[in-house]
Specification:
CATH architecture of the largest domain: Sandwich
Structural class: mainly beta
Radius of gyration: 28 Å
Shape: elongated
CATH class of the largest domain: Mainly Beta
Number of helices: 0
Distance between the termini: 49 Å
CATH topology of the largest domain: Immunoglobulin-like
Strand content: over 45%
Helix content: under 10%
Largest sheet: 13 strands, mixed
Length: about 300
């Protein structure tokens, strides 16, 4: 149980619940988080602010409000919930002990605290307070709730990394996801993203055109997987590339840095003579030779196979 206690003439409390084990919803489904109250004095408006991880919980709406709801404001990792009277002349409200409102969040997987904090708008007030009808209720005790879902696997179909619909969990990944790019899937990433780990399976392709991809754990490219990197990669665990040498039917497999508009001469040639450069056509599993004379201005395109 999460509990926030305020001391004044009366003892005001707010509470929510902890979610773990069987109470954790399926990733991609809605999570109902109650705000319960006790000993709230008569008020015109009451504002509570809750801090949480927005990569884990995505606000959807509310239901079962005990009194009139005012504005709900979303800022960085915070939600501000207002109850009160918004007519003139105002009439003091009573909020009975029990459920004040249920907040609805889409659960994106992982762990997050659900911390009641204060709406301290007066810089001269040293202690925190709950804004109840403009009176300052000093906090005497704070205990907060959380949701603990742990690490989950998330497999993407071909498409854009940031599109929820591309993923098996129906949400794009966060830092608690083990990302799997399966065989036959081609994925593009053009924005910063943090995940737990990445595995590119044989036949899977990841094309990172911009941004920084950060993993807490490992980054694995299986034999036959493809990763084209034009952004930045930060790996907290182990980076592993699995390659099975030469094949009689497929030619050489190779690992290389993607290049664009790179002059072949003189970077890859000597002072004279003819050189053969080879390009591998991955869909057709065919090598193509490109004869080059020293001095020719022929440029290499991005490699079609990178493992």
């Amino acid at each position: 149980m999460s509990l926030l206690t305020f001391s004044s003439i009366s003892q005001v409390t707010l509470s929510s619940v902890d979610f773990s084990g069987a109470s954790i919803p399926t990733v991609g489904s809605n999570l109902i988080i109650p705000i319960n109250v006790a000993n709230v004095p008569d008020f015109y408006t009451l504002t509570a602010v809750i801090e949480y991880d927005q990569s884990v919980l995505e606000y959807v709406g509310y239901q079962d409000a005990a009194v009139t709801m005012g504005s709900i404001n979303i800022s960085t990792n915070q939600i501000s919930v207002e109850f009160g009277v918004f007519s003139f002349p105002p009439v003091a409200l009573e909020l009975e002990d029990g459920l004040a409102v249920n907040l609805i969040f889409k659960y994106r997987g992982g762990n997050s605290s659900f911390d009641f904090i204060v709406n301290n708008t007066d810089p001269e007030v040293a202690s925190n307070y709950l804004d109840v009808s403009a009176s300052q209720q000093s906090i005497s005790n704070v205990t907060n709730g959380s949701i603990t879902g742990g690490i989950v696997a998330n497999t993407i179909s071909s498409g854009t990394w940031t599109s929820d619909g591309s993923w098996s969990l129906t949400v794009s990944p966060n830092a608690f996801h083990n990302v799997i790019i399966a065989s036959g899937d081609a994925v593009s990433l053009s924005a910063a993203s943090s995940v737990n780990s990445v595995t590119i399976q044989s036949g899977g392709k990841l094309n990172q055109t911009a941004g920084t991809l950060t993993t807490t754990g490992d980054f694995l490219i299986e034999d036959g997987g493809s990763f084209i990197q034009e952004g930045s990669l930060s790996v907290g665990g182990t980076t592993q590339v699995s390659a099975v040498g030469a094949h009689a039917t497929e030619g050489w497999k190779f690992m290389a840095a993607p290049v664009s508009n790179q002059l072949i001469d003189p970077a890859f040639t000597g002072t004279s003579g003819q050189y053969d450069f080879f390009r591998y056509d991955e869909p057709n599993q065919t090598w193509y030779a490109l004869p080059v004379q020293t001095g020719e201005q022929i440029r290499i395109s991005k490699p079609e196979k990178l493992i």
